[in-house]
Amino acid sequence: MKAIQISRTGGPDVLEYVDMPDPLVGAGQVLLDVEAIGVNFIDINVRSGRYPRDLPLVLGFEAAGRVSQVGEDVDDVSPGDMVVVLGESGSYAEKTVVSARRLVKLPEGVTAETGAALMEQGLTAHYLCHSTYLLGPEDTALVHAGAGGVGLLLIQMAKRLGATVITTVSTGEKAERARQAGADHTINYTEEDFEERVMQISAGKGLPVVYDSVGAVTFDKSMACLAPRGHMVLFGQASGLVPSVSVAAIFNKSLYFTRPSLKDYMASRDELLQRSDDLFRWVKSGELKVHIHDRYPLRDAAEAHRDLEGRKTTGKLLLVP
What confidence tens digit (pLDDT) does each residue in 219-259 have? Predict the structure, then answer.
């Protein structure tokens, strides 16, 4: 099979398109013929060395396709089933072996591309506004990177819960995309100070919650946007790591700070299924729109990484074997 492997960390040029043996299925596992692969910032963090892993490895944590073989002790999926998987490495390949407990069957009418575009970012948006901080009609939330994959889904879910949404973007095109998703206020951070604008919108009171996936360049101002007893939800680091959090800054307004991870919000299979069932139901009903920015042949994974890192995209990027 063909796969994208890294044997050293670095820029997109370390992604190698190679021939590899087909993986072997063990007990509790499933062999998947991959039809669509989700590209996520965690892939970039692993590739760059920010998240250390043993090398060499096949990159990727999200894929959808057809089950071709099942191992012993697997009884809830069968060969021929269309499924999506999240959280196990090795998805940048024509075939991948995964744990059956990480699989979710795709409902009729949901394609492999939609499944791969929805799973990681949809589950993230789901836990952020339903569990980390449960939004309601009385809330106004700041969502950074509102035209990104998580941002567009989070805006839609926040509006479904009745919240008012402020979002930051870098271009007029991205602002329009965020407004189409339901954002009430868009702030182009290349033209205005988002902290000042948030305080204007909130009449100086600040906000109950900020969802920040950008990290280093936005963190301090995000904290300043919060009202007393507000929630700072740092769930990404696209611009770099936040090295430390000042206890004094939290104490100053009795703030709540959390650095959540998706793995802890789908730790049990029941929780994974409950969240994914919501996502698929909303997609099928039309309540949730999934925006795929572009599809790249698997061999062009480096180009996809460059576009994602360069903030040239909106919504989801897919690799197609």
Answer: 999 999 999 999 999 999 888 888 888 899 899 999 999 99
In a domain, 126, yes or no: no
For residues 287 and 95, give the distance between their C-alpha atoms in angstroms, rounded to a whole number: 32
Tokens 């999240």 correspond to 86
Cis upstream peptide for 107 (omega within 30°): no
Given a cut of 90, whether residue 285 has pLDDT beyond it is yes
Q: How many angstroms separate the CA atoms of 198 and 164, rounded?
A: 12
CATH number of domain containing 163: 3.40.50.720
Token pair, residue 89, equals: 């490495």
Residues 34, 112, single domain; the answer is yes
Instruction: Pull the structure tokens for residue 49.
Output: 């060395």
Domain that holds residue 92: 2-119+267-320
What sections of 183-228 are H helices per DSSP? 194-201, 219-224
Which of 271, 258, 159 lies closest to 212, judged by CA?
A: 258
